[in-house]
């Protein structure tokens, strides 16, 4: 099965280098390339790739807004963001916009393949520097984080992890041998208890808790 990829970066040479790396994998194909954020959104809708790799700093529409629009218009596309910035504020914005991976450009040579493979499976991926930053930043106010998570039932924790891993409601129902409506009920309770309003926020919360990497 071919993994179809959209690549968006305003630097042609960067795109060419990334494309060469990606297509070293026999079953991976870059089906479209964009040089700005608006074009990335248009091509995402047109080609409906499995994975979209977006630079944060793009002209016409930045990576955060492009991510938000793609996630809203084509929610099945898994989004991996490339950035020069190892900053928790950037990561938070990107995840809330709908991405599930955040890769620093200076670690792309070492981590790009693993990042794309993880994101393609609906799993989150963060460059090691970013992962440490997130955990370090949230280790201090841990009381509230721990208390809220501990209020989840065993089944709700299972649902929590499956959401963080990118599983759809039907997949969760099949894995847990329960109905889709039961999954939806548990999902709503998880989000209410944790005061979370999107799957992307669940991914960030799960990384903070060390539930997913």
Any descriptors?
single chain, about 210 residues, alpha/beta, Rossmann fold, Arc Repressor Mutant, subunit A, 2 domains, 6 strands, about 15% strand
Helix-strand blueprint:
Blueprint: E1 3-8, H1 12-22, E2 28-34, H2 37-47, E3 51-55, H3 63-73, E4 78-83, H4 88-97, E5 101-104, H5 108-120, E6 125-126, H6 128-138, H7 142-150, H8 154-164, H9 169-176, H10 180-194, H11 199-209
Describe the structure.
There is one protein chain. With 213 residues, this protein is α/β, with parallel strands linked by helices. The protein has two domains: 3-136, 3-Layer(aba) Sandwich (Rossmann fold), CATH 3.40.50; 141-209, Winged helix-like DNA-binding domain superfamily/Winged helix DNA-binding domain (Arc Repressor Mutant, subunit A, Orthogonal Bundle), CATH 1.10.10. It has eleven helices and six strands. It has helices at residues 12-22, 37-47, 63-73, 88-97, 108-120, 128-138, 142-150, 154-164, 169-176, 180-194, 199-209, and strands at 3-8, 28-34, 51-55, 78-83, 101-104, 125-126. The protein has a six-stranded parallel β-sheet with strand order 2-1-3-4-5-6, with helices on both faces. The longest helix has 15 residues, at 180-194. It is globular and about 50 Å long. The model is unreliable at 138-145 (pLDDT under 50).
């Amino acid at each position: 099965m071919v993994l179809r990829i959209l690549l968006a970066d305003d630097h042609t040479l960067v795109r060419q280098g990334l494309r060469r790396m990606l297509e070293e994998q026999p079953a991976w194909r870059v089906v479209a390339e964009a040089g700005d954020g608006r074009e990335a959104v248009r091509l995402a809708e047109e080609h409906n790739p499995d994975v979209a790799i977006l630079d944060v700093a793009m002209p016409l529409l930045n990576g955060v807004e492009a991510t938000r629009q793609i996630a809203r218009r084509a929610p099945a596309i898994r989004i991996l963001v490339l950035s020069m910035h190892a900053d928790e504020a950037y990561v938070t914005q990107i995840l809330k916009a709908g991405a599930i991976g955040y890769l620093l450009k200076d670690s792309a040579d070492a981590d790009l393949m693993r990042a794309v493979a993880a994101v393609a499976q609906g799993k989150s991926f963060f460059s090691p520097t970013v992962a440490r930053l997130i955990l370090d930043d949230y280790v201090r106010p841990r009381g509230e984080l721990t208390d809220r998570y501990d209020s989840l039932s065993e089944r709700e924790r299972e649902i929590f992890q499956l959401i963080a891993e990118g599983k759809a409601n039907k997949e969760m129902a099949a894995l847990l041998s329960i109905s889709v409506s039961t999954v939806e009920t548990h999902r709503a309770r998880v989000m209410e208890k944790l005061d979370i309003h999107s799957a992307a926020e669940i991914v960030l919360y799960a990384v903070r808790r060390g539930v997913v990497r």
